[in-house]
Amino acid sequence: MIKSIAKILSIVPPKTMHILPPEMAHFAAMQLLKIGLVYTKEFHDESLEQTVFGMNFKNVIGLAAGFDKDAEAIKGLLEQGVSHVEVGTVTPQPQSGNPKPRLFRLSGQKAIINRMGFNNKGVENFVANLEDFRSSYQGDGIIGANIGKNKDTKNFLADYVIGFSKVYNYADYITVNVSSPNTEGLRTLQHKQNLTELLSGLINARVQCEKYFEKRTPILLKIAPDLEEQDKKDIADIALQHDIDGLIISNTTISRDGIPAKWQEQAGGLSGRPLFEKSTDVLRDMYKLTEGKIPLIGVGGISSAEDAYAKIKAGASLVQVYTAFIYQGFKLVYEINKGLKELLEKDGYTNISDAVGCDNN
User: Fold this and answer.
1) Burial of 14 (0-12, 13-18, 19+ CB in 10 A)
2) How are beta strands 142-147 and 61-63 bridged, if at all?
């Protein structure tokens, strides 16, 4: 019965939700996903399968962090055909985030501005939800946990170590978020000295967790698209030195290029179509700076198979989508996967991994 209702709802245009204010629409979507009332036909082909971070991904498409901050709707999200879902950002203590309104649709640009501010219910609630999911879900799918620091913390390393240690046994990989523009001072953690201290501390924490839980959980670092050239070089060097498993490129941008004047002064991170070129340029740079030695996840402005393929050819092994789902719905997962298979065949590749970074060769 639920699946039948979900199929009926699947033909309702995503823009129907836009009659609601953005944050209310997001809440409504989460409730539908939690009870299984969102349905998407899945496209699967062996050419899209690959192994990254030592894990088998059934396709390249994942859901970016920020959609399911408290790990409440993982099952419903995996059922949309994505290979992985990144939940969070979660902080050690609950926090309400920035004052409302803090989420804005730029429909003409297929974009979003958000200044949510890591609103979440805290890591204890987050872990309880992950534990419930792990105990009941029998399907496939990879789960990443995105961790951050509380707004008013005095010791950034302590916050990250707490979050890291708490989620370690329940996540397939852990993303260290140092790139959101909506927590004051967070992006300074991308600077050489701070980043070295942070990653050294987390590598030490992993040594302890690996012994205790008898498993090695990959560590990924999510970076901003607004980096100076020296910052990019420093991040690449530090990631290689500390044996970081992957980079996610990128978070939202503070740039306002390509959007109407009325939005120019609106604070927050910009995502969606205007971010595509900027984030892809940084992706390409980081692939070259790391010499292709670290797997990259491309994020920012993807709304078609061609966009996803461009990220892959620039150096991404995987991609993540969020904003485009707001405008096109989860049917986009099917469309991208189907389109990627056709693009691979056109270029003579047998597997998606063959195309990774090919534009840089």
Assistant:
1) middle
2) unpaired
Rounded to an integer, the average pLDDT of 189-200 is 94
| 3-state DSSP assignment of residue 39 | coil
181 contacts 209 by C-beta, under 8 angstroms: no
Measure the CA–CA gap between 63 and 55, rounded to whole angstroms.
17
How far is the C-alpha of 112 from the C-alpha of 104, rounded, in Å? 6
The domain in which residue 290 lies consists of 2-360
The number of distinct structural domains making up the chain is 1
Active-site annotation holds for 180: yes
Q: Where residue 232 sits, what CATH number does that domain have?
A: 3.20.20.70
3-state SS class at 127: helix
The whole-model pTM stands at 0.94
Residue 225 carries which DSSP code? S
Condensed to tens digits (0 to 9), the pLDDT of residues 73-101 reads 999 999 999 999 999 999 999 999 999 99
- Among 83, 180, 279, 317, the active-site one is 180
Is pLDDT at 15 greater than 80 in this prediction?
no
Using the structure block, give the residue that is written with the tokens 């693009």: 343
What is the per-residue pLDDT for 12?
Answer: 54
Query: How far is Cα 358 from Cα 242, in angstroms, rounded to an integer?
Result: 26
Confidence of residue 13 (pLDDT cuts 50, 70, 90): low
